[in-house]
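pasting for ref. prot 1 ->
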Amino acid sequence: MIEIHDLRKRFGKVVAVDGVTFSAADGRVTGFVGPNGAGKTTTLRALLGLVSPTAGDATIHGKQFRDLVEPVHEAGAVLETQSFHPGRTGRNHLRVVCVAAGIPKARADEMLKLVGLEDAARRRVKGYSLGMKQRLCLATALLGDPKVLVLDEPANGLDPEGIRWLRQFLRRLASEGRTVLVSSHVLAELAQTADDVVIITHGHLVAQAPIAELTARAGGGTLVRSPDVEKLRGALSAAGVDARDCGENALAVDAPPERIGEVAAAGGIVLHELRRQESSLEEIFLELTGTEEARPG
């Protein structure tokens, strides 16, 4: 469990994070999104003990990062900054980390296989693509088998196949009971990966909810399509249900699908399509964050 409570961070006159409160639960993938400069990276760095909050708390299983007894086994992280020695192989990089953390060296080969880098284990990191380096970052974060993962833009540099692999990989980690907090700008992909979403802008929290709930709540009613659209419109009007044109033979209706289905069935009206309209995560993000200028953060 990750808990952020009334977190505040000021850099001189700049307020990067201003009273943010949210949580990320065990067994779920939580997406953490906001415009550039919204305070995402500052929040993650505060959680990992890399910056000191001006006020508030950021804890992992109830403890600040510096108070974790065995941090490598409790929290793994991938931040935007990568720290690889270009002359080392991927395998040697992981083995060095294993030695420093008191982890058996055999774990390095296990993680290379887990992230799909076993064939590149003996190649020098300087020859890795950006996507391969991202996979190596994930392998490094998982060496201690942590229960919490904090990932900042993990899809950066991945090709479509790699992004699909990452989605399945993160879902698998969450299914094992881990807490997975992911910061990403790839909203369409995040919508397919995350269970919950936290949205911030200008250092302020503007939304936290399960993605399915948020998109349904922001949706625009129900879309219904029928070859007898005028008859359907009349039946809905008689039932006190508002409807408006929404394309050929289609209506946007301010009522749940179940109600529309009942009206259509009562009138013997054929339906070709009946579905709840939901806003995409991208649409919700743009609506909540607007087009305000981003700040350092």
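and prot 2 ->
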Amino acid sequence: MSRSTDHSLAISVGDQVIGARTSLGFSQRELSRRSGLSQSAMSRLERGLHSGLDLDDLQRLAAAMGGRFRFQLDAPFLADRSIQRDRVHGRCIGYAARRLRGDGWVVASEVEITGSAGPGWIDVLGWDPLSRALLVIEIKTEIIDFGRIQRTLGWYQSRAGDAARHFGWSARTVSSALLLLDSRAVADRLRDNRDLARLAFPERARELEGFIRDPARRKAGLPQGLAMIDPLSRKTAWLRSSVLDGRRSAPAYLDYADAARRLGR
């Protein structure tokens, strides 16, 4: 029986055992003697097959080679989930949701979606009952990996229709927007990624705000949009332009820490 790519964890463990054993110059028989585990079970383990060994057995096997196993959960969207729970991000979600409702949208926040990449959470999902337009909003208070932000938003947009049906929303069009905290640190990172950002987000604050106020005018929906927001602002025009539009006015905040201090007052 050959090793299966459907059992990547078992294969990974087997490869680690083989690597450690051969580096020490142990045969399977010798490692079996040292660990007290059967040689047939170790043979199956090293081939990525079901061996019948439990976690305690693996610890004994590692100890026999002077080591220990460490397991790490790789869940790429858990990092985004932890960010969603912070104060600044939460204030931005509430601010965007309140503004959308003011323009007649029905809104849900932190909407969970699932897929082959794991679970994800749409920050704000808006639905306009008249035009049946669906709007996916991703909010970022900092920019770490702009390419990943773009890919994540694209995935959210592709899954948003299924998520909307759970609320009884039948969407005719699905649009998306990236809303960024209006800080100098974010503006600097956006400037560093301006070529990619301009290509990925062809619509800006003015077009996005026009779409939110009257989505029926864009019958085909809106290409991905990008704008800055200040959750403390009470101005009617709540979506702010960015450095991509040649903006020269100073951002509302210096960085995330500055926003956290001011929003926490």
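The chain has eleven helices and five strands.
Strands lie at 106-113, 120-128, 133-140, 173-181, 225-229.
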